[in-house]
Specification:
Blueprint lengths: L6 H8 L12 E7 L4 E9 L6 E9 L2 H14 L4 H4 L4 H7 L9 H17 L14 E3 L4 E2 H11 L4 H8 L9 H11 L18 H22 L2 E8 L3 E8 H4 L3 H16 L4 E4 L2
Length: about 280
């Protein structure tokens, strides 16, 4: 299976902790949008004077990783002071769950931002990022700003646009923001060593062999990953250079289908051992 979920992720997805709304909550944080595919509402009961988080509950709309990450967040922050809870990083959430697939790390980032929004609400402040004068939206599709992207790059040592998409969702739909994401990466990531010289061209492959590899990869690698989030994929056509597919189930209506298409293409290129274009039709 491409997305290898840990037993702890499955536990928190199938039996999530602290679902609902805290009665008498004095801190509320809301992040995301159902239009984007993920949304999280976090409610807290914070003890006046000590700032200890006495209770925490969540409501979320999203995939299994979003549910598991939200459940883990509430378990981690209960009993801590607010300032201590704010030190929790998205990587801490992933580690608590014994790891998350890179393609799902944006779920842990969403949890951390919901906590930051709740803290601002409790303190009577507007939820804004530091250096507000430099704040602007990079990804219009998912409302991801430049500081969220920069923080994800610094804290998780990201080096590619694909990784940024996995951690923040930015660039996962229309991809018009990819040039700015690349610019941010160039500014924050030290220049890498020169790329190795390309090797020899891959040997010729018969169409029969090509189709067989594609079908095996779809069946054993890609479809199980999509099924985890109630999605699927149908193979429509295969040519020498292109593969045409249609997403099914939740994947067919997800605003992040562009990111999923990148995932499918990367898996098929790896299996085939050569560049391949994967095209989606609705």
């Amino acid at each position: 299976m491409a997305w290898d979920y840990s037993e702890k992720v499955k536990q928190h997805y199938l039996h999530p902790k602290n679902v609902g709304v805290v009665e008498g909550a004095n801190a509320v944080g809301e992040i995301g949008s159902m239009v984007c595919g993920d949304a999280l509402k976090l409610t807290l009961k914070i003890q006046e004077g000590t700032d200890i988080i006495e209770d925490a509950k969540f409501q979320t709309y999203g995939c299994g990783s979003a549910i598991a990450s939200s459940s883990a967040l509430t378990e981690l922050i209960k009993g801590r002071t607010l300032d201590d809870a704010l030190k929790i990083t998205n990587q801490d959430l992933a580690d608590f769950l014994d790891g998350l697939p890179e393609e799902k790390m944006h779920c842990s980032v969403m949890g951390r931002e919901a906590l930051q929004a709740a803290a601002a609400n409790y303190r009577g402040e507007a939820f804004v990022h530091e250096e507000e004068s430099e704040y602007h939206t990079v990804c219009q599709c998912f409302s991801v700003n430049n500081l969220t992207i920069e923080n994800a790059i610094r804290e998780n040592h990201l080096t590619t646009v694909e990784q940024v998409t996995h951690y923040t969702k930015a660039g996962g739909a229309c991809r018009n923001c990819v040039p700015e994401i690349e610019s941010i990466l160039q500014r924050l990531v030290p220049a890498s060593a020169p790329a190795a010289t390309a090797g020899e061209a891959p040997p010729p492959m018969s169409m029969f062999r090509r189709i067989k590899i594609i079908e095996e990869t779809l069946e054993n690698d890609i479809r199980p990953a999509l099924h985890t989030d109630s999605g699927g994929l149908e193979l429509l056509d295969v040519s020498e250079t292109e593969i045409t597919v249609r997403f099914l189930g939740r994947c067919g209506s997800c605003a992040q289908s562009g990111s999923t298409l990148d995932f499918v293409q990367a898996r098929l290129e790896k299996a085939l051992g050569r560049p391949t274009i994967v095209r989606e039709v609705k």
